[in-house]
Amino acid sequence: MKLQVKGITEGQPIPETFAFGVYSEEDHMSFGPNRNPEVEWSDAPAGTRSFVVMMYDPDVPSVADDVNQEGKTVDKDLPRVDFFHWLLVDVPADTKRIPEGADSDGVIPKGKKGGPGPIGIRGVNTYTHFLAGNPDMAGTYAGYDGPCPPWNDELVHRYYFEVHALDVDTLGLSGEFEGDAVREAMQGHVLASARVSGTYTLNPTLR
């Protein structure tokens, strides 16, 4: 199975077009265009009945005490956890492409709705938790919301775009399901997978 993410070269920096946050000299970070990139896949195996599309960052600090704090840095050796940026399940078997901007075009304060979207069913991404304490932004964030790593992180973050071909029409997920629920529901149903990775940082010393 093959996957292409238009505009992203394997292992190279992700363009700001696809980012939730972009570097700002005055304020460290400002909102980015936050468009989902175009993804296209091919060579799915016989028997494929649906797809899962996901994007996640495995490099998010496990402790957020120093995140985006003036005069502090997030140590590169701090243990890291997954942060899900995009979850689409029950993508029909005849779908081979998601156009740029189809699932996200701009930052939407308080988030986008989950459930059936333009393509497949949207799961809830981790911004739902990350922004829960911000009264201007708190809400349920579903579908795609792009990179916005801590601007004081010593580590350049990696981002994995994945497509999984499944042997079932539906994972049976509903409500505000998240990444771990998707991974658990996929177990035993994955026929093939493909991945493209990129990097992103808002730390001016690493850019």
From TrEMBL:
Tagged with keyword Signal: no
Entry keyword set: Protein kinase inhibitor
Signal peptide segment: none
GO molecular function, one term: protein kinase inhibitor activity
Tagged with keyword Protein transport: no
Matching NCBIfam families: YbhB/YbcL family Raf kinase inhibitor-like protein
Name of protein: YbhB/YbcL family Raf kinase inhibitor-like protein
